[in-house]
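This week, think about what follows.
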Amino acid sequence: MSTYDKSMALTGQPPEALNTGQKLATLLGMSGLGILTLALFNISFPNKGLWLTISLSAIFIGVFWFSQAAYASKLKGIKNDGVWFKSVSSRGLWGWIAGIALTGFYVVLYFYPQYLGLVKDGENTGVIALFDPLSRLLSGNPASQWFVYGTLYTVAILAFGVKFIWKYRHNRYEKIRTISVMFFQTAFAFLIPEIMARLNGKIPYYDLKNMWPLNYYNFERYRINGFIDSGDIGMAMLIFGILSIFVISPILTFKYGKRWYCSWVCGCGALAETAGDSFRHLSDKSKMAWKVERWVVHSVVVFVTLMTTAVIYSYLGNDTSKYWLTKSVFLGGVALILTAIFVWVMLYKREQLQKDAKYGAVGYFVIIMALIGLHFFSGDGNIFLFKSETLRKTYGFLIGSIFSGVIGTGFYPIFGNRVWCRFGCPMAAILGFQQRLFSRFRITTNGGQCISCGNCSTYCEMGIDVRAYAQKGENIVRSSCVGCGICSAVCPRGVLKLENGPQKGRINPTEVLLGNDVNLMDLVNQK
């Protein structure tokens, strides 16, 4: 079949009717979902392992087949394919139906797992019982709602990851990073933790690719005791978790920017990039959204910092003869670290911050220091005038459940695929802070080649107006940028390039004009 297209439109064409292969693939995938739906309504399957295999295989093969039918006959290159003409990807009727269905699933998953068939003191029923054979095979335990979710989550990333690779097969960077997130989700987040639970039942379930503040629960008393009771391997995992925060993450972010995690490792980012790829253009590009993003996401960072401090503080003691790390020493250490970071930023990096960012940093610092000072007035088990358990439950409900799950994923078809990463993820905010101030990562642009088509801005899932930078030939250094590289992949002129270079000249908005430095002799002399 000929792939020759006479159209020169960069915006793509209205979507054509599904071909025979796509229709059959859709039927196959829906049949797999149908099996899960029947199990949800307590239809008993005689051989649960067999039917689960059939269901998951049908879903995976259906997505794979659909992707091949959609992209294999087309030339490599930009694939807009009329996304603004499709109801499901343009906030149309099917988009709202999909959003409501996903949101409803997350509400049931987090708050009403009994409707999925979870039975605390007895045999599971419904769709959870269908996953019991797989769970017993991996960990030796019956399935929970989280195992069901983890399995479906992994299958979605693998299946839609294949679709993503078909779509962006012209770009080597996109193929490699997609394979990376597929690997980390399957191995580090799904298989290895389940197998470790089978080998050593004392080890708390540990998603090895997660670190604080995403796994904000990692420093709770029961998990710390679980790590200690598990012997050397448990202590190694606890130490690894601490080193990830203070050593591994800063070094990798300095060298590669936050993309090393947000676009290559993170499970939330993996689902957003694969299953959520069809909705990336729905991200709000307005200036108001950018302002809301900065204040909300950094408020979440403050919240999780206070909550984690409170949780650790609650189970420390005051007897210096037993442990050197007492409540007062711990709070003093937290205050010292935060003060050092604040002073460093204000002294050496304040020129790189906007005015409201400076005011925000001062405000947040004053709030945290004031609350730490109030611990002397707290009762036993209290900190910041609140019980630590109250802070933990509040954070877990508002951020861990409502924001990251119900809104963050359920609202893909409405707000775009990175609404959680953009507005609520504390990990993204911390890595973005590091990326903006001391990372070597930047996206370089060649303004002389930019034709202002707007593809880059349209498909930026983080709501960055990339075209505005490209038109000026200005380096793109933004805290919110996750380095997905889609802006570069959809650029028809090769204007954008993801680079890790020296920090000097990384942020130089006053020295560029149409992609060239004003004084070209300065560049010659530097070389």
